[in-house]
Amino acid sequence: MSFTGSFLRSIPEVLFRQPFRFAGIKKKKNYAETPSKYRPSVLVKTLRGFQFNDGDYVFKGDILVRQLCMEIYPGESVRLDPETWNLVALSNGRFTISTEKLSPYPDSPLYDKVKEGEAIYKPFVHVISDAIEPIYKLKRIL
């Protein structure tokens, strides 16, 4: 049996087409016009690390460092948020970063290493408070 041109013409053209999906391209939503409660939240994992540069002026309550574990330690006028591991400023002042020798508490796993004589240096974050100028009235000169 030989195939002739008339036989191929009788087969519908649909059988020879490449298959494809009728899936549309997803359109990105415009959140600029919607209220803030409907906007997608910013991924916190992309904002990890130092939030200020060394020497910047920070205010009480500012988050200085976002971290997942204890990589950077709190120093003067800085507290550690135990739930999120964020370092938060306790007062207004200049933000400084320093590397210091660690002196851990006795219940810390690093305490035994330090007690054996090993020196462990870690980064610390400090907020140097503004100088308080004394305000007084001079009653008499001696």
From TrEMBL:
Supply the source organism for this entry. Answer: Schistosoma japonicum
For this protein, the record's InterPro entries field holds:
Ribosomal_bL27
Record's protein name: 39S ribosomal protein L27
**What GO cellular component term, any one, is given?**
ribosome
Q: Name one GO molecular function term.
A: structural constituent of ribosome
A Pfam family cross-referenced in the UniProt record is Ribosomal_L27
Q: Some GO term, biological process aspect, for this entry: which one? A: translation
Q: Which Gene3D superfamilies match?
A: 2.40.50.100
